[in-house]
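Justification of resources, computational component.

The compute hours requested in this renewal are based largely on the per-chain cost of generating structure records like the one below. Each record pairs the submitted sequence with a full structure-token output. That output is archived, and it is also reused by downstream analysis tasks.
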Amino acid sequence: MKRKEFRLSVCFGSMDEEKAIEKVINDIHRYLGKDTEVVVTDSSSDRTPGVAERLGAKVIRQPPRGYGVALRTALENATGDIVITTDCDDTYPMEIAPKMVEMIKNGEADVVSGSRLKGKGRVPAMTYLNEFGNRVFALMTSVLYGFRCTDATTGFRAFRSDVIKGVEWTENIGLSLELVFKPAVLGYKVVEIPIDYKARVGNTKLNPFKGGLAMLKTILKYKIKPIKKKD
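The structure output for this chain reads:
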């Protein structure tokens, strides 16, 4: 029997990432193939969107409205059977993406989440504050939502497209958390695999204190608000 062909999409938001975006897109095509759809929501004032378009990406321009709004817009415009999320700062190892895709193709998972912390001690590419916060959020997510999670805030995941289409995503800064605990609560099989994590290219746009507070609110919010599949 001929094996089903799966179309792939990679989604991310970008804002003034011209130093990194060419390598990020080239790595996507190198490890996942030239036919992989790249969907970028861009809010840049530099050359980022032009570089992305030159490399064949589908670029959606919008004013800066935050991480979650940008990524959600990209996800809504993805057409692949398997959808991968990443960041535009070259921190995530795209060479791991084929393994994530195969796990979904083989039915091992509905969501494969790349954990920067699984089985590790200190992560040099993270500040001490960010690493502490990420470990606390993972612990809280595990306890409150009843599944084992070591990195709830990673931006590197692969999803069956029906997971993306079947869940209502509402968070902005907290979207990375929402993308893992909602599928788990709704009965989708979420599997973590360890990944390496590199120092970002360029400057971060996220205030760690403002971002941390928003993520804390997201974790607590859905212990009160019901989590449901889309009708």
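The beta strands are 8-14, 37-42, 58-61, 82-85, 111-115, 157-160, 190-194. The chain has a mean pLDDT of 94.
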